[in-house]
Amino acid sequence: MREDRKVQxxxxxxxxxxxxxxxxxxxxxxxxxxxxxxxxxxQAAAQLQACxxxxxxxxxxxxxxxxxxxxHLLTGSDPPSVRAAAAxxxxxxxxxxxxHVDADHIRxxxxxxxxxxxxxxxIDVADFIGTPAPPAAVKAFVDRHPEISGRIEIPxxxxxxxxxxxxxxxxxxxxLFAVIQAAAIHRHIAQQKGEDPFITEISMDETDSPxxxxxxxxxxxxxxxxxxxLQTIAPKFSGRFLKGIDYVGNLAHFQNEFDQSIALLxxxxxxxxxxxxxxxxxxxxxxxxxxxxxxxxALRRHDxxxxxxxxxxxxLEELLGLAEAGGPALAFAKQVYAGALAxxxxxxxxxxSVIDIDRARLPSATTVSAWSSEQYAAALRHDSTCPEFNxxxxxxxxxGYKIAAENREAFFEQLRASEPAxxxxxxxxxxxxxLRPLFLGERGS
Length: 445
Fold this sequence. Notes:
- This protein is of the alpha/beta class and 445 residues long.
- 50% of the residues lie in helices and 13% in strands.
- The strands form two sheets. Strands 2-3-4-5-8-9-10-11 form an eight-stranded parallel β-barrel, surrounded by five helices. The chain has a three-stranded mixed sheet with strand order 1-6-7.
- α7 (213-225) runs parallel beside α8.
């Protein structure tokens, strides 16, 4: 018969051998933060203005400018350019609150170019999930954590967690290798950064199935064993978090998972001496309008923090601004669509797990070439009440930024010509439709 038990707090010596990184070397991530992706580093001030508006409403939401190795390759930029754009915006708007630059979805082979300019590192180990850990490592983990076997009472999870020793062995065999890889990457960053402090996030969201509470507990215990000063983690939730469109899935199921995950993190902080500000990170979180009220309620109930990572929607707001400007700007927006449609397989391949395009719903390039500004904008703008809104077209353009990158001089010329309108769109989208409903509890427009 399985034994019901309460988890006992680990002795300090378990994590003090070698120790967490000295407090002076770990930046403190604020309670609420937003990852603001900017494909072409032209809208940092407009993005920051949304955080300024949130602050004026009494809520600090810290901006984290994020860009991945893949995005740098596709746009021909480099990591220092992200920090430069962010720093310019901070100076221009006289922003006095914290701000960060995220090396997004890095691995050991891609992290080095980000070391000097980033102070936030999203360590992506999703590809290592399911790789068997060394049997000796699995046995050592299970022996070290007998408290995980049996029934564990967790505040906020009424049924608790039930796991046998074979269950824990199976879970450790699935996830332990990924955590070991995360630790190796973290140690490499720490060695390279020296006395320069930074924030650590682990991403496990781009995988096939969501992590159960029992699995998340094993992951967090393993993170603590590896002495990773984790401040935010991005697990996989049920449903689909597709690029630039709303959540697809069961809202009640998501709410239950989100609540349980918050409770699990609080439990792990108390029992495994992880950083007290450890919080959830929701990736591809932009435009998940149907979830924001549910998430906001859970954050209030648990007094919890959140990191919402957005990417690509700023680029789409730039396209919307060009479409609305008409003339040469509209012509360029149509050119981007035609190029993306012609190269759809190439552009979609890297994002296959986070897009779902119905090709039958994509209009021909000839059709789009005849559209007015209003028609193009109506098809692209994320407004589910508009009959002309086309989620498949929006997703294609979301991943089609490579077309603009290949024609950057013409693109930047049009951006400069339409800058005021684009900036208004970017700020309004981020504040009214994301920060306001999620962090201020007010419905976006």
